[in-house]
Amino acid sequence: MGWLWQAIVLFAVTNVDDIVVLSLFFGRAGRAAGSTRRIVAGQYLGFGLILAVSIAGAFGAGQLPDHAAAYLGLIPIALGLYAAYGTWRHHRGDTPNPAPRGSVWSVAGVTLANGGDNIGVYIPALAAFSTPKLGAVAAVFLVLVAVWCLAGYLLTSHRWATAAMQRWGHIIHPFALITIGMIVLISGGAFGL
Fold this sequence. Notes:
mainly alpha
């Protein structure tokens, strides 16, 4: 059972920032019809890709070259710039929707980019597990994705959090996405940073 605690700690330590990102998506989407389902599906899609690449890397097939994961930081930067542009257009009166509100693809892209550095941690960690335990660890990770989604959702269910998101979310959302992208680029050494 030591592997179970290793899996839980490994997931928790590498995904703390995802709760904040998820709460931003949930807060921006409000309670629009189908938004929760799209955000959860996007989170699973993005994390599923991270997990698949990590497992492939753990088996020694398809390891990413040095610093390749850092360039995934361009995805949240692009999404953040798009959200900022939408906010700007909304304030000019050009459009009623100020920012993307959690499409499956935008959530998956941010999850993948934000978790690009996780790949570098997961590959060596998962390589230490036998094949049956590796499958069990993957299952634990997928259950924990649901726990993370629930935590992000519950964070926005508090009245003060919802009010703050409605008032400031159009500013926080693009800023957070661009910041995440910059952190991924800089910490990974992309473009010689």
